[in-house]
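User: Fold this one for me? It's PEGA domain-containing protein.
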Amino acid sequence: MRQCILLLCGLLLGLRTTAQDVILQTNGEELTGKVLTITPELITYRSPAADTLRIAAGQVFLIRYANGTKEVLQRPTPPPPGLLSREAAYAQGRRDARTHFRAPGVFWGTYAATVLTGYGGVATGVTTSLVPPAERNFRVPDTGLLRNPDYVAGYRRQAQNKKIGSAAGGFGAGVGTMVVLVAVLLGTYGLH
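Assistant: Here's what I get for PEGA domain-containing protein.
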């Protein structure tokens, strides 16, 4: 009888220690872990793998704590385009481009050109990264901001930087693939 009670207490304590907070993102995904800090910009939490991670507060809709309470995070609504100062609009454009702009074609195009031709990856990466991003490819949280030229200039600048980074990443991944491929071939067939 005593062993049953001890076993039951151990199970209950085990359940208590595995309770996790749930972070519900704006895209519907759920993250589990222990929320450590919440600031207007970042939420820091410890994942079940014991890693301390951070997520932008703007990407979080709700936090459901282990004790059952919920906290809905309010996003500050951006002011209309005419009310932002030039510097604030430019900075907002850069922040939004960091979060929302994607250029997967630049990475994969440079990667493929590097793997297939070797030297062609440099030319492809330079060419694709120097072409300015078209406004039709801008993904923004509020389309009204696209009427502000300072916002668009900041967004375009950061999107261009992301394209350059994607091209460099594609070239690096392509070179890495080529090095591994050559090493495997030399290991398999040896040097004669």
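One thing worth pointing out: Strands lie at 21-25, 30-38, 42-46, 52-56, 60-64, 70-72.
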